[in-house]
Amino acid sequence: MNIRIFEHEEDLNVTGAGIITSLLQTKPRAVLGLATGSSPVGIYKQLIAMVQKDLVSFAQASSFNLDEYVGLPAEHSESYRSFMNEQLFHHIDIDLDKTYIPDGNAPDLAQECEAYEQRLEDRGPVDLQILGIGHNGHIGFNEPGTELTGRTHVVALKEETRKANARFFDSLDQVPTQAITMGVGTILKAKQILLIARGEEKAEIIRQAFMGPITTECPASLLQCHPNVVVLLDRAAGRWVK
Ligand code: F6R
Predict the structure, then answer these.
(1) How confident is the model over 173-195, as a mean pLDDT?
(2) Three-state DSSP state, 193
(3) pTM for the model
(4) DSSP line for 111-124
(5) Are 4 and 230 a contacting pair, CB within 8 Å?
(6) Distance, CA of 92 to CA of 223 (rounded, Å)
(7) Which residues are annotated as active site (predicted)?
(8) For 218-240, how does the pLDDT look when each residue is reduced to its tens digit (9 = 90+)?
(9) Are strands 192-197 and 128-131 parallel, antiparallel or unpaired?
(10) Mutate to test the pocket of ligand 1, among 66, 88, 160, 223 (most ligand atoms within 8 A of CB)
């Protein structure tokens, strides 16, 4: 586990974007695993700036997102499809047909999960998976519990996760109660993982995830089993890292 702590946001974003662009330079057809949420946004901005300066191209790359809400139309402003289009895809030269996000409106959600997992098997493995971390240690929407699910599946969102995401909706009632998420096994199949966390509010869960025991009660702690994880933290999130 390679944990790096940055004093300046800009340096964190440049380093994160640099890991992604180095991969694309050596492997233009790379398969990227992408995340929504606030943690990767600064890195996405940096990537957009680099594409605009012709320093990197996503033209041959493809991407798989970690998750999507169940029941929001894709065009809803808070769907993860809309988020990715606005924060990244519409500003870079990636082929939108090769950006995969689970369909949270599929008529048969179990079949959609199986099809997503199969597509990952056919086109993967993911070369580089980007992750944020929930306050409760979730990765993707793999919420803490006594058991975790390996493959892509439908998950009931914990109340704390719905509350954390309510900031993007008019009210808590509007936050979906379910999501489709890659499973922990799906995530761990990526060749390399890049986890980003920012802010004091993530300091304690970062300590538990990377300095505590491996436990399903903190899904991110399972990343300790992966041989190639890079963690980028700002000083506040890395407060307890020795
Ligand atoms: C997003 C995702 C979530 C977030 C996590 C952290 O696709 O799967 O696990 O990465 O909830 O969210 P932020 O970055 O908003 O703190």
Answers:
(1) 97
(2) strand
(3) 0.97
(4) HHHHHHHHHHHHH-
(5) yes
(6) 30
(7) 67, 136, 138, 143
(8) 999 999 999 999 999 999 999 99
(9) parallel
(10) 66
